[in-house]
Amino acid sequence: MSDPTSMLRTGPAVATLPCEACSIYRSAQLKKLGVRIDRADHVVALAGNPNTGKSTLFNTLTGLRQHTGNWPGKTVTRAEGAFAFNGRRYRLVDLPGTYSLLSTSPDEQVARDFLLFAQPDVTVVVADATRLERNLNLTLQVLEITNRVVLCVNLMDEAQRHGLVVDTRQLGRDLGIPVVGTAARRGQGLSELLHAIEDVATRRVQCQPIRLPEPPPALRQAIQDLVQQLHRIYPDLPNARWVAMRLLAGDESILNAIRTGELAAVTGLSTGTTKAETRASHETARPDDSHA
Known about the structure:
Elements: H1 4-10, E1 14-15, H2 23-28, E2 30-34, E3 42-48, H3 54-62, E4 64-66, E5 68-70, E6 77-85, E7 88-94, H4 106-118, E8 122-128, H5 132-145, E9 149-154, H6 156-161, H7 168-175, E10 179-181, H8 190-201, H9 217-233, H10 240-248, H11 252-260, H12 262-267, H13 275-284
Helix pairs in contact: 9-10
């Protein structure tokens, strides 16, 4: 039997046109751009555990039924599309579903590296409202890398059916980031989600995310010393504490990123370029862009 994912990697992209009569379209002021991602004002990453409705949300926002390719050097599939909201264009990158960012599998490494090195303007973590406690593990790990996060608590209709109530306002206060409840299959909560994405992308909302508890005293000084060294070399690195902790854990991919200069290139320090220019140069070098 052939690998079913091979069809996803090579199949043609199919986009549906925005339906202006649709209530979702009217309420959210959403324009589904399909694969038209030649120009984007902001890059948004979709992260989450498998089976949280992440792909449904991606298809709903972009109008795509299928648009996948391979990450450079990986067999892991990716999906990219675009949408416009309130006059701004967004490139949406659907990261592989993963339970962790500790790089124990190709899926986890691809998701982690994109958040760390591509530095998207917003990361939307999609969580299952019926299994929220398990899903929050990934959310806390993402918050260690970036503070520009929106938590999308999806499948709220399923939670209601099981008698579960999620207090998104209190959860947002606890996490220090915008939290929006959605039922992507029904289009519920999309308008609120898009406004939250816009607020974080434009920095109208400054997130103040909760961080994991302080490490043991024996590690605290080592982390602080490494953070100071990283800031001296990469003053624009927004996640130096997380990088320091991964270095102490012996993360080979982070070590290689420093040795090869990839970390310097991402921060723009090696050439003095801006983040947007660095990202654009990385994108033009991707072999899969001809299919985007």
